[in-house]
Amino acid sequence: MKSVKKGFTLIELLVVVAIIAILAAIAIPQFAKYRQNAYNSAANSDIRNAKTALESYFADKQEYPAD
Length: 67
Prior knowledge:
Layout lengths: L9 H52 L6
């Protein structure tokens, strides 16, 4: 009888690790870029909200807050 060995060779495992490393090298900078864009969008939204609050205050009191 022949004995059949099942499993992966070292070369196959190294190829898989190399592919994962290449994909990670592509994905990580993109993720950082999207994260920075999200922070910028949140900051812009906060500025718009502050502007709206100041305009509302001015509409009610006909002056801007002193401090």
